[in-house]
Amino acid sequence: MWGGRFAEGPAAVMREINASIPFDKRLWRQDIAGSKAHVAMLAAQGIVTAADADAIGAGLDRIAAEYEADGVPEDLALEDIHMATEARLKDVIGDAAGRLHTARSRNDQVATDFRLWVRDAIDAVEAGLEAFQKALVARAAEHADTVMPGFTHLQSAQPVTLGHHLMAYYEMARRDRSRFADARVRMNECPLGSAALAGTGFPIDRQATAAALGFDRPTANSLDAVSDRDFAIDYLMAAAQAALHLSRLAEEIVLWASQPFGFVALPDAYSTGSSIMPQKRNPDAAELVRGHAGRIQGCLVALMTTMKGLPLAYSKDMQDDKPPVFEAHDLLALSLAAMTGMIETISFRQERMRAAAEAGFATATDLADWLVRVADIPFREAHEITGKAVRLAESERCGLAQLPLEALQAIDGRIDERVYQVLPVEASVAARASFGGTAPEQVRARIAEARTTLGLG
Ligand code: ARG
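Above: inputs. Below: predicted complex with arginine.
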């Protein structure tokens, strides 16, 4: 009864659900590079004639120029970037276009294209992370001596230097870069020539196409090669981890920019106002970096969930691999650029940071350590004595260094005037000169090493 309507309906929906061209057109450069390498190999192996290969190569160059100039036309009927380019090739050079797909399937084609794309994405992220590290190192060098409270449980713990705090993020970015670099090495094997799933009977040369496309070697198992998306998941894992780090820094910027903290002032360029509250200066960029990290993690989970139940080899589910990778990449690139810009331009309110370090009795550990070192008191007892001194300073509304000697001696007679050498926040940070500690000399040494690593001399 409704068959007529239904017969048309599902066909349109089928086309819509099946088409990946709206997103996989982003692979056009990689697709053309892969096809050119493939056809050159086919000619070298005598599988297609030199004349056909030349016509195909020239046609692909022309299509690349068209895509570059006008973008990729989005014809859903042509399903994906691979079919769209091949269809256009037929328009441009005629029937010889049909020889391009010899000894190839879209399964090894898309696996190759996507690896090439992810490889480029890794290189772009690496550059972004390096710029971020340079910004951190530059600001850390300005603030190797700037004292701020260090926190545990978000409670004032011990004074640290701002340079030390910023260099903590340099270290995170260093590990993030090594994760991307590691993923790049592992993924750099070429699936092209695996064909649909079983390989091909044509006398192809997989070493040649792998080398032409900058891969280290061809993949070793055709079933694995067409159904492996580890490389994309590796990329997303590294992206999620890097975004997580950016998000922690973003959260700190949000906190530090709040009025009760007042540790930083964001420049106009990275702040937004409120349409109703005229006094507002909101850290939206930092909030969005924090928010984007959640979406990037979601992309990782999306692809892992897509892949986890797929039998070998290719299933169309795998077409859904691209949107989460593209999305995560765009979000990460934007987050990195925004965070780098914020770090470069944020102003640190040194007097507020120092005052907060003093107000939080952050040198209480220094007092306890002094009681152990100089007065030879067991640490547990020293801890108790210091606790009393903190309680007194709290009730007197002053810092530990402002307590008069008589008051300290009333708590414990073994305290003498030398204790005042360790109570200032500057003395506290200077004392923490163990390797990797917060002492300015240590921070400067780490910055010098980082500058060398970054090629800044
Ligand atoms: N657009 C497809 C994808 O991205 C290409 C591979 C299609 N292969 C197939 N056998 N239908 O996964």
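The first strand starts at residue 147 and ends at 152.
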